[in-house]
Amino acid sequence: MKMRINDVVKTQFDFGWKKWGKNIPGYAEPTLKHQKGDILDIGCATCELYVYLRKNGWNGNYYGIDIKRYPGYDYPDGAHLIIGDPMEMEFPPVDTIVLYNILEHVDDPVGLLEKALDSSKNVLINIPKRNEELWEYGVVEFHQLDKTHKNCGFSTEEVYKLCDIAGGRLVDYEEFIEIKPTFGLASWNSNLPKYALILLNRISFAILNLFFSSRKFYSDIWCEVVKK
């Protein structure tokens, strides 16, 4: 019998993002602050954003679009879940459209943002920030591990260009979740004794931290966009 890869190793994982628990994402509070009324959450997963908003006094209508319904998760009452491809459907009438952790998953991020801008008063975006300077030193960023991403994150310049091409204008821009320059640093591949490898890693960590001591790196970009 031919062995399949998923019979040998785990191939599916979700990084625990389908239920927030006490780990509230950094984009939750800005959503509450910048929403204009009724919300369409594209890439809504299990509608945890809706749960957060309700707990914090928001009482608008919430619509969530996702490509599928996730088994084994309870969806909150009051959230209007729509299953399908957002590029192939008509959006319900809303005031604010949320594009959180979705533009890196689609083939046409410009087209999706353009459609969202045409269908709302404002669009709120969260995407992974690409820090290529860290890559040169062997630092692995968390979003690089997600096999479902269509790109390797966005630079600041690309975010502004993306919004401009889609016919939008940024009115608010933030970077958050500070990352250390040694996070995910590849281990030394050597035949040296274990104590020597530990010492080399510690020295390399100290050098990188010193080198980047005056710099701050962030893993996420959040922004608010309106139509030009």
From TrEMBL:
MF terms in GO: methyltransferase activity
UniProt key word Transferase: yes
Keyword check for Transcription: no
Keyword field: Methyltransferase, Transferase
Pfam families (UniProt xref): Methyltransf_23
GO biological process: methylation
Name by which UniProt lists this protein: SAM-dependent methyltransferase
Organism listed in the record: Methanobacterium formicicum
